[in-house]
Design brief:
about 30% strand; 4-stranded antiparallel sheet; 10 strands; 6-stranded antiparallel sheet; alpha+beta
Length: about 200
């Protein structure tokens, strides 16, 4: 990525939306380490198409794409390409965004959550969807065990670790800094993320 791009800071337990042109790169940086980032990508020219984790699993026949492979929309068409992974490589496409009902179930009321943060960030970019799609959870350390158990462990990423994506069409990107601070997911300490946008 060249040095003429722009950057977006996503504060802890918040979300941000930004537009990206086809062909541009988005690098997502875990600034302080052990922080999960929930990512959504919506077609900027047709808000009825967005990155679908289930259809990506189906088309790739994998739990998560490898570097060099693409994520698809709900029609199976590629929407972004996974171009680089400078992290331990532990990511997730099974979990939905945390929401207020999850926190309320353990007695935490009015807790920040990625579901509401997505809605607010998307609305700020003029995007309203009929559903909240499941996100790509970069740096989330929750690979299935052989018996099918899904243990959510502390993100293995360190300060400065990153992933890089190439936009295959104009897109609205929504990125949230995961709000979970009552479980080891983010080392019980939510921290910011940084998105760097620029040309290849």
């Amino acid at each position: 990525m060249n040095d003429t791009g722009r950057s977006v800071t996503v504060p802890a337990q918040q979300g941000r939306a930004f537009t990206v042109a086809a062909g541009e790169l988005v690098e997502i940086v875990d600034v302080e380490g052990h922080q999960v980032g929930d990512l959504w990508v919506i077609d900027a020219e047709d808000h009825g198409r967005w990155l679908s984790t289930s259809h990506t699993r189906d088309r790739r026949e994998r739990m998560f794409p490898r570097v060099g492979e693409s994520f698809t929309d709900q029609f199976g068409e590629p929407i972004i390409e996974f171009t680089a992974d400078a992290s331990p490589g532990r990511h997730d496409m099974l979990f939905p965004p945390c929401n207020r009902w999850l926190y309320e179930s353990v007695g935490l009321f009015d807790h920040p959550n990625c579901h509401d943060n997505f809605l607010a960030a998307a609305a700020s970019a003029g995007v309203t969807l009929p559903v909240v799609p499941d996100p790509v959870n970069f740096f989330q350390n929750s690979a299935p065990e052989p018996d099918g158990t899904l243990d959510v462990l502390t993100a293995a990423s360190s300060a400065g670790d990153s992933v890089t994506l190439r936009m295959l069409r104009p897109a609205v990107v929504v990125l949230t800094s995961c709000s979970v601070d009552n479980w080891p997911t983010n080392n019980k300490n939510c921290t910011p993320l940084l998105a760097r946008i620029g040309a290849a």
